[in-house]
């Protein structure tokens, strides 16, 4: 379980909201995360040519995101799907795991076999 704080929004007496990601699956091309809220939500986040796209299968709805780390902008866009407090929680959750999609994965090394190579390279 991944814990994160929703700082900057809804601070009552200096206490930030605590959010939880209960499940995360990284497919390389996209991430699927389960966010614990009053009503748990599953989000599929993927990279597209104009930025990023997040889709919520249980709500049958999605939206474009220009950046995974702009929490204020993402909260505004996600407010069309969730209440504002839940939208802020989802925006913080996406920012917490967004570095996995923002950086491309290393390519695997491919060993070429030659005729004189009898043993395997490992």
Provide tags for this entry.
122 residues; 21% helix
The share of residues in extended strands comes to 25-35%
- The number of distinct helices, counting runs of at least 4 residues, comes to 3
Compressed to H and E, one letter per element, the order equals EEEEEEHHH
Quaternary state reads: single chain
How would a crystallographer describe the biggest sheet? 6 strands, antiparallel
Kindly name the structural category: alpha+beta
Total domain count: 1
Q: Quick check: average pLDDT?
A: 81
Could you say which overall geometry the principal axes of the C-alpha atoms support?
A: globular
Helix content: 10-25%
Q: What's the total number of strands?
A: 6
Structural Rg: 19 Å
Q: Can you summarize this structure?
A:
The protein has 122 residues and is α+β, with helices and mostly antiparallel strands. Helices cover 21% and strands 34% of the residues. The chain is built from 3 helices and 6 strands; from the N terminus they run ββββββααα.
